[in-house]
Amino acid sequence: MTLDSRSDTPASAPPIEAEHDALPPLPMNAEGVGGDTLHYLLNYLGRDQYAGFGFYRYQALVYAIRDRITERWRQTRHAHRRDGTRRAYYLSMEYLMGRATHNAIANLKLEDEVRAALMKLNLRWEELQEQERDAGLGNGGLGRLAACFLDSCATLNLPVMGYGIRYEYGIFRQEISNGYQIEAPDHWLAFGNPWELPRPESTRRIKFHGRTQFVSNGNGGQNARWVDTRDVLAIPYDLPIPGYGNDVVNTLRLWKAAPTEEFDLAEFNAGEYAEAVASKNDAENISLVLYPNDKSENGKELRLRQQYFLASASLQDVLRRWIDQNGRNFSDFARRNCFQLNDTHPTIAVPELMRLLMDENGLGWDEAWTIVTQTMAYTNHTLLPEALERWPTHLMGNLLPRILDIIYEINARFMRQVQYRWPGDHQRHARLSIIEDGPDPQVRMAHLAIVGSYSVNGVAELHTRLLKAGLLKDFFELWPQKFNNKTNGVTQRRWLKHCNPKLSTLISSTIGDHWVTHLPQLAQLKTYADDPGFRDRWMAVKRHNKERLAELVAADCDVKLSLDAFFDVQVKRIHEYKRQLLVILHAVHLYDRIKRGDVDNWVDRAVILGGKAAPGYSMAKKVIKFANAVAEVVNQDPEVGDRLKLVFLPDYSVSKMETICPGTDLSEQVSTAGKEASGTGNMKFMMNGAITIGTLDGANIEIREEVGDENFFLFGMTADEVASRRGHYNPWDVVNGDPDLKRVIDLVQGGHFNHLEPGIFDEVIGSITDWGDHWMVTADFRAYVDTQVQAAAAFMDRDRWARMSVLNAASSGKFSTDRTMREYNDEIWRLEPVK
Ligand code: CKZ
User: Fold this and answer.
1) Three-state DSSP class for 391?
2) Is the distance from the beta carbon of residue 802 to the nearest atom of ligand 1 less than 6 Å?
């Protein structure tokens, strides 16, 4: 069989139940798991107890667990097939999965058995776990959201499959050298990934370059053919997505790029053998590396190649299964399939589905367009203009000529509709057009996504409201019924149960464990917020978790934190709109207060920052250097001592967040109002009993609504105030009018934190003073500092703080992705849960 054979199932496949389901189920006990682990270590991996390399022991355990997952996986697949159920496909360029093993064991409810089995083998679960590399196939919130969605869909029995790219290199590893971020490649597959299952029999063929040829179809019409292409193969690797305690295992299918067998035959024939083989890299490069940008437009051809590769491979995969089961009759296709586009990144799927239906399956335009616009749904994740994807038509015309033809036709038909609705309103026509005119015309991917979809959603109430009133106003007027909100969430299985076992045990022993699948049950904890015994136990758990976090900080930053200090944490991608600067400048202000002896009623504080900067984002990288420079001075000053510590935790990741959020007292969510679409870190902190200091932005607003304003530290301008004040004040007037801020700016400008590298922070300070303070750091500084004083005072009142902490966790029920997925399903996908 060749790699790109056309059908996955032989014509006369045996009845599916027959022999497979006759296998006896594997034992779900310590003896079974332990025996299988040993079997895989000794007989399959060929290692023994003397092998010094811990990875093999971890690998053997994974195989033992995976066997148990695989039988449920097969049964889930058969159930989907048997029922011919309607299915949804999540298309995303990013999945920030983190580690899989703990999650799999916990979702199989095998934790106790695994522990016992490993004990017998003289292995420690905690140590084995450290052998697993994070699957870092995403940048930040958008990629992590996709991972939480998959967990919730599997837990809710929803037939949802994820499609993505199997990057060889995930998000870069961040090292800190002399305070600066250094990027190192994340070769996470170096020793292989025991969780993945390659399925080369389902390889798909992807076209690039070439040209469109029209041939007459014999009925007076013409058919388009995309010819003279340079093709690449897409090979699927499946990862199991186990539901919690329900024996469901869904699939995340990741595509790896590979050369076709005839790759560059022409060169080969000309005697350029080595060159032809070397040019295989062109194909393999497509799935080589994740683009490390979070926001920020990116016009690189390789990125467009990746996007088309994902869209085409995934759609072909779905169509192939459809044709195998239904033949080339697509009348029911839209009733049985839908695609959720994770931002505009996979939006090229809109014209690609048109092409596959028309060129490869003979449908007419109208028939194909009806199917497309009844199956595609688009989620917008940001209002930032620099993140709005646009592709130059010349680039797209060269790489995907047939796709560009189709986009032009979609636009021509769409513009006729616009002309009919708003005759003669040329400005509006230009604003709405999928093609942005100009010397270098561009395809606006968000417009293509909206025109091609039956649903358009934002990710928090405020975000959706701002989309409708601002960025997408014209589209909202045209198609108000397409727009809807779906507030983000996180999965409480990973973000409370697994990452905070002590708190989970306390919660479950108090209200039972129904919350693991029904998070609003946590509201029952509210009655315990005033129970002194419960509060003591709650705070003892927090202290234990602060100890874990302090150990991480000691190991990674070589700074010792006092467990009595107020743990004040901001971890997320570094971006000006997220205002890490506000947090650092506040630390400088506290340092200044200590140095001038203003320490009455002092509350010791440990400020912990973490996050990656896009490698090309120089301001963000300077902010990291700034944090480290301030930290260096503060942490070494004996006069400061435990009153203030500031650390920058390197290489922030999903796994690190699992230690960070349980140990946090104060969650920093301080973005310029109107700029953070939702945020999801805010929800993880809240669920673990941290209290938020934040602006009225993204999901903060809904968090505050749930927990009550007395349990949330609100500060700063609103989105409306930001919009009307921006550019209408002089930052220097603010600085000069606030003695605390003036001293902070003077300290930094005076070179107090950079004696050896003069001038390096000029741009950082310039960005908030001389150049208009676009993100309004100076404008919100006073309110922030005052609110921090209130937060510290609340922290010193141990009973009050414990109460607030309990109430935060107890009020986090809305922010489960179980709720989010139910809403997507009720209002967009309309799938039947599978039995
Ligand atoms: O999505 C989260 C939200 C956050 C929002 C984030 C996001 O900032 O508030 O909680 C989940 O809904 N990420 C992106 N846009 N919004 C985003 C991620 C990656 C890339 C881009 C935007 C990326 C881009 C543009 C990667 C490579 C090139 C270009």
Assistant:
1) strand
2) no
Q: So what's the pLDDT on residue 275?
A: 76
Give the CA distances from residue 65 to residues 69, 244, 307, in Å, rounded to whole numbers and listed in that order: 6, 15, 33
What is the CA(343)–ligand 1 centre distance, in A? 8
646 C-alpha to ligand 1 centroid (Å): 28
573 assigned to active site:
yes
Ligand 1 near 623 CB (within 6 A): no
The pLDDT assigned to 726 comes to: 85
- 94 CA: nearest ligand 1 atom: 19
Give the C-alpha separation, 58 to 123, whole Å: 10
Q: What pLDDT, on a 0 to 100 scale, did the predictor assign at position 771?
A: 87
pLDDT score at 281 = 82
- The residue type of 429 is H
In tens, the pLDDT along 651-667 reads: 999 999 999 999 999 99
d(CA 58, CA 822): 35
Per-residue pLDDT, averaged over 330-346, amounts to 98
How many Å separate Cα 727 from the centre of its chain? 33
Phi (first) and psi of residue 295, to 5 degrees? 70, -175
Q: What was the pLDDT predicted at 9?
A: 55
Query: What's the confidence (pLDDT) of residue 279?
Result: 74
| Beta strand segments in 656-804, E | 666-669, 691-694, 713-714
- Single out the residue of 163, 325, 320, 160 nearest to residue 238, CA to CA: 163
Residue 19 above 60 pLDDT? no
Cβ–ligand 1 distance for 464 under 6 Å, the answer: no
- Give the ligand 1 atom nearest the CA of 297: 29
The answer, yes or no, to whether any atom of ligand 1 lies below 6 A from the CB of 295, is yes
CA of 422 relative to ligand 1 center, distance in Å: 33
d(Cα 62, Cα 416) in Å, to the nearest integer?
A: 57
Nearest ligand 1 atom to alpha carbon 381: 16
Ligand 1 centre to CA of 94 (Å) is: 10
* Cα 681 to averaged position of ligand 1 atoms, centre (Å): 14
Three-state DSSP state, 247:
coil
Give residue 222's pLDDT.
84
Q: Is the CB of 145 under 6 A from ligand 1?
A: yes
Provide the Cα torsion 781, 785, 791, 797; round to 10°.
Answer: -170
275 vs 322: CA distance, rounded Å: 39
pLDDT band of residue 85 (cuts 50, 70, 90) is confident
For residue 459, the ligand 1 atom closest to its alpha carbon is: 12
